[in-house]
Design a protein that fits this description.
Largest sheet: 3 strands, antiparallel
Helix content: 55-70%
Shape: rod-shaped
Number of domains: 1
Strand order of the largest sheet: 1-4-5
Order of helices and strands: HHHHHHHHHHHEEHEEEE
Number of strands: 6
Structural class: mainly alpha
Number of helices: 12
Length: about 400
């Protein structure tokens, strides 16, 4: 009986052991399956992370390529903008209304320069008023020196003949000084190249005439402006011209004083005039160079030129004014038929294109246009005593 109980207990324990062993095996299998599943999940996660990183890297690379392309396009646009801006700036030079100054401002410069010349001539004449002698010798050198400005070797003799009263005679030196200074200032304003024995002056003058005759005003005007501007820069005109121009004015004033009989030698007069008047001469020269730059470089819609009447021309009251003529008609008629000795005050002339009728085109002008000359300010002149 007890043996059966032990057998049943043994069978029950074996069955329980078997069940426990099977349960253990099942747990092990489940653990192995879970581990395998875990490994698969980790593998999938690593794969997904790598794929995501690769996708992001590809996107970054693509954006970097787009950014580089955008930058290249921006650089190209900037270069193109610079080119177009430069082209527009260059084209602006040929706009018909690209003047930097008005005609009125240039006219004011001429009037101011004439006034300065008048004032200093009067001052110099007053200073030497009591130093003239009746018989003056050794004036040939001074007379010859003045010829290059007055264009006549006997202009002083003719000027003395023009005096009709003592009051007129007292003003002879002043108008002679004005005549010399005006002639010299006209030379400064109208010269392209100031270097000695220059062939460039003649060539540029001829070239300008050719361009003016064949090209539109805004082209010829801009060419003249650029040419004068570059010549001024290359030759350093405004600095280099001051000392020789001042010395020319000193010598010219001294020569005028000497031929009118001031009791000093020409060299002594040069020293005296230099010591007393060089600062004012320098101011006049600078003003003349300002006028040269204003009319020559800053005006392109027309040609503005300072006007001077040369010795020997017939007087014409439509083109000039008599320095000593009164306002009455009878006094003006006295000027008719007389010749000009020299100019005492600069004038100003404008030349510009005007449209002509289709059947009225002039030879040498642009098609449909002609050159019109307008006097903005008449030059004042000193006339000879005798009628032509």
């Amino acid at each position: 009986m007890q043996l059966r109980v032990h057998e049943r207990a043994l069978v029950h324990g074996a069955r329980q052991f078997k069940e426990a062993a099977e349960a253990a095996v099942n747990h092990e299998n489940r653990a192995a399956a879970l581990e395998a599943q875990l490994r698969r999940c980790e593998s999938d996660r690593d794969f997904n992370e790598d794929a995501h990183v690769h996708l992001l890297q590809s996107r970054i690379t693509e954006l970097e390529r787009d950014l580089a392309a955008a930058r290249r396009q921006a650089d190209n646009n900037a270069k193109l903008l610079d080119v177009r801006t430069s082209e527009l700036r260059s084209a602006k030079f040929f706009f018909p209304s690209a003047d930097d100054l008005s005609e009125t401002e240039v006219l004011d410069l001429v009037n101011t320069l004439n006034e300065q010349i008048f004032q200093i001539s009067a001052t110099i004449e007053d200073t030497y008023h009591d130093r003239y002698v009746a018989d003056c010798h050794d004036i040939e050198c001074a007379t010859v020196w003045l010829k290059k400005f007055f264009n006549s070797i006997d202009v002083i003799g003719a000027l003395k003949d023009a005096a009709s009263s003592p009051d007129d005679a007292s003003n002879l030196v002043q108008v002679a000084l004005q005549g010399f200074m005006v002639s010299f200032i006209h030379y400064l304003c109208g010269t392209w190249d100031f270097t000695a024995d220059s062939r460039l002056q003649h060539r540029l003058t001829q070239l300008r005439k050719s361009i003016t005759a064949r090209e539109p005003q805004f082209v010829s005007g801009r060419w003249r402006s650029l040419c004068l501007s570059h010549i001024r820069t290359l030759l350093n005109t405004e600095v280099a011209m001051l000392p020789p121009a001042e010395q020319e004015m000193v010598q010219g004033v001294a020569a005028v004083l000497r031929v009118f009989g001031v009791d000093s030698t020409l060299n002594e007069l040069c020293e005296q005039v230099h010591a007393a008047y060089v600062p004012r001469f320098r101011e006049i020269v600078r003003r003349a160079l300002d006028l040269r730059r204003a009319a020559g470089e800053m005006i392109v819609s027309c040609d503005l030129e300072v006007d001077l009447v040369h010795c020997g021309q017939q007087f014409d009251d439509t083109l000039m004014e008599d320095e000593w003529a009164g306002p009455r008609a009878s006094q003006r008629q006295m000027s008719e038929g007389r010749q000009v000795l020299f100019t005492t005050a600069l004038g100003l002339v404008r030349e510009n294109e005007v449209r002509t009728p289709e059947d009225g085109e002039e030879e040498g002008s642009n098609e449909g246009f002609r050159r019109k000359r307008t006097i903005l300010l008449k030059p004042k002149v000193m006339l000879s005593a005798k009628r032509a």
